[in-house]
Automatic annotation (TrEMBL):
<dbReference type="InterPro" id="IPR024066">
    <property type="entry name" value="RGS_subdom1/3"/>
</dbReference>
<feature type="domain" description="RGS">
    <location>
        <begin position="86"/>
        <end position="202"/>
    </location>
</feature>
<keyword id="KW-0734">Signal transduction inhibitor</keyword>
<dbReference type="Pfam" id="PF00615">
    <property type="entry name" value="RGS"/>
</dbReference>
<dbReference type="InterPro" id="IPR016137">
    <property type="entry name" value="RGS"/>
</dbReference>
<dbReference type="GO" id="GO:0009968">
    <property type="term" value="P:negative regulation of signal transduction"/>
</dbReference>
<protein>
    <submittedName>
        <fullName>RGS18 protein</fullName>
    </submittedName>
</protein>
<dbReference type="InterPro" id="IPR044926">
    <property type="entry name" value="RGS_subdomain_2"/>
</dbReference>
<dbReference type="InterPro" id="IPR036305">
    <property type="entry name" value="RGS_sf"/>
</dbReference>
Length: 233
């Protein structure tokens, strides 16, 4: 499997440091004990909704309610046009990443972009002893069966990732991250570009109509003006 870093070498990874993902994931896992009975899809959605209500998931979330990210985002039409050139360019911009995350929330699939960002952060780990606890949190949050924010992976990719958990490397989640990246690029990204909020970003801001100010005359306006004393018969 091709290293996903080769797929998007120009990403501004420093822009992805805003959210304390591992702290949030760890607390989410503790609050999600394994149940004897297999939870249904509706139960999982309800649990996910409760998790999303945590304030940590909304740090830096300055674009307003889902579906209305154009109202508060100060994005120029020129910048928005660049987002449509490629998925890489969209994710490389902080405002673009936020807008796309907002869009995924409206489709209840934000776990994909959260997993992708968590993998980017994981690969920036500077020492080997950081990898195991981080890998465990990512695996239990996004990959294992019935995980709180389980992403859609094929059996082979999930199995390969699971086997590498004993001694995780920086490349442990590369295959899974690449799969989720391609899923978003081929499925969610085209719908994002067709969405009304994104299309509205391409429109230049409407200018308020100019108001003509009425002039108030004063006595000084008539200084030097001789009155017409003609007597009309």
């Amino acid at each position: 499997m091709e290293n996903p870093l080769l797929l998007f070498p120009q990403l501004n990874i420093s822009a992805l440091k805003d959210k304390p993902y591992y702290k949030v994931m760890k607390s989410a896992i503790k609050e999600e004990p394994h149940k004897a009975s297999k939870p249904g899809a509706k139960q999982k959605r309800n649990r996910l909704s409760l998790l999303l209500q945590k304030p940590e998931f909304h740090e830096g979330d300055h674009l307003g309610k889902p579906g209305n990210f154009t109202k508060a985002a100060s994005v120029s039409p020129e910048e928005a046009v660049k987002w449509g050139e490629s998925f890489d360019k969209l994710l490389s911009e902080k405002a673009g990443l936020d807008a796309f995350t907002k869009f995924l929330k409206t489709e209840f699939s934000e776990e994909n972009i959260e997993f992708w960002i968590a993998c980017e952060d994981y690969k920036k780990s500077k020492s080997a002893h950081e990898l195991l606890p981080k890998a465990k949190i990512i695996f239990e949050t996004f990959i294992q069966k019935d995980a709180p924010k389980e992403v859609n992976l094929d059996f082979h990719t999930k199995e390969v990732t699971s086997q590498s958990m004993g001694q995780p490397l920086h490349s442990t989640f590369d295959a899974a991250q690449s799969t989720v990246y391609q899923l978003m690029e081929q499925d969610s990204y085209p719908r994002f570009l067709r969405s009304a909020p994104y299309l509205s970003l391409l429109q230049p801001p409407a200018r308020a109509p100019l108001r003509r100010r009425s002039r108030s005359f004063t006595g000084s306006d008539f200084q030097g003006v001789r009155p017409d004393l003609t007597v009309w018969g």
